[in-house]
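Structure (tokenized):
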């Protein structure tokens, strides 16, 4: 999937506009992803612009954050199947976040992980297009750099030294979550007298 995107629009009569969103091919070609009827019809001269961030995709899902830049800000999380089939706006999840910004997303198979508001979230997409969210950390400490592969999720965790955060890590450690057994364990163990900084945790298979 290309990371570039833009909006184009088609006018259906004098007072109704349909936004068409697609990912741009590096050679200038594009693939239609979906058509979306605007909630508020507008005049034909109105131009809608916006973009995405954190675009990720696998053979089982596609996910991105969608932002409007015309007429105010705001964003939404969209998740769908392969090639954008059955895209759905995840209103319930964004409500749970209570306005916290999603900083990172990464996916493997039918799993999507994201870091938002200092917590690590796991989304699992079912074959029927439904999905479930789970907060893997759900605490007051900082977590970031999440990565999922197969049955495992890893991330950088500050729970063992609460005085650090993502901007100023302080002896942060790597944690691993097993999706099948629903268990979590600490991977690295660095003593306070010899603090280190862990960066960019990843797992494969």
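Design, position by position:
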């Amino acid at each position: 999937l290309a990371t570039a995107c833009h909006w184009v629009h088609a006018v259906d009569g004098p007072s109704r506009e349909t936004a068409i969103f697609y990912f741009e091919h590096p050679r200038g070609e594009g693939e239609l992803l979906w058509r979306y009827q605007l909630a508020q019809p507008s005049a034909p001269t109105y131009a809608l612009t916006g973009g995405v961030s954190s675009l990720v995709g696998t053979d089982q899902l596609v996910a991105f954050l969608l932002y409007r830049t015309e007429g105010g800000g705001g964003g939404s999380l969209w998740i769908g199947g392969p090639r954008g089939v059955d895209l759905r706006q995840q209103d319930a999840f964004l409500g749970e976040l209570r306005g916290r910004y999603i900083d990172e997303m990464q996916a493997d198979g039918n799993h999507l992980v994201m870091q938002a508001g200092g917590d690590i979230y796991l989304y699992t997409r079912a074959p029927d297009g439904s999905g479930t969210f789970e907060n893997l950390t759900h605490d007051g400490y900082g977590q970031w750099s999440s990565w999922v592969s197969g049955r495992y999720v890893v991330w950088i965790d500050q729970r063992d030294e609460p005085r650090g955060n993502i901007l100023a890590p302080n002896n942060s450690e790597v944690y691993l979550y097993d999706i099948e057994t629903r268990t979590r364990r600490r991977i690295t163990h660095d003593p306070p007298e010899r603090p280190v900084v862990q960066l960019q945790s990843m797992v494969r298979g």
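Reviewer-requested clarification: The chain has a mean pLDDT of 75. The radius of gyration is 19 Å.
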